[in-house]
Amino acid sequence: MVKHIVLWNFNEGMTPEERQAAGAKMKELLEPIKERIPGAVSIQVVVNELGSSNRDVALLADFENTEALQTYQTHPDHVAAGGYVRSVTCDRSCLDYEY
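Above: the chain's sequence. Below: its structure in token form.
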């Protein structure tokens, strides 16, 4: 199995309402991709609501293997979602590991 974790902050200057809407849109765009990727086990977008964190949004995904992760990363729906995500976020961090 492969765990794929991506963390972002929203762009500076976004209002709380804009941040909430952007997080909802990220969930809407990214989570359904699981159904279109063979080997995708789970994809979850979590919007931070606690002040103890230093990131605003997390994508937590599990794939059966590295090939499934690669398929996800190059899938047209993921590429399109990435355009939106890049428009509302900054400071991307990613960690992939096998378990």
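The chain has three helices and four strands.
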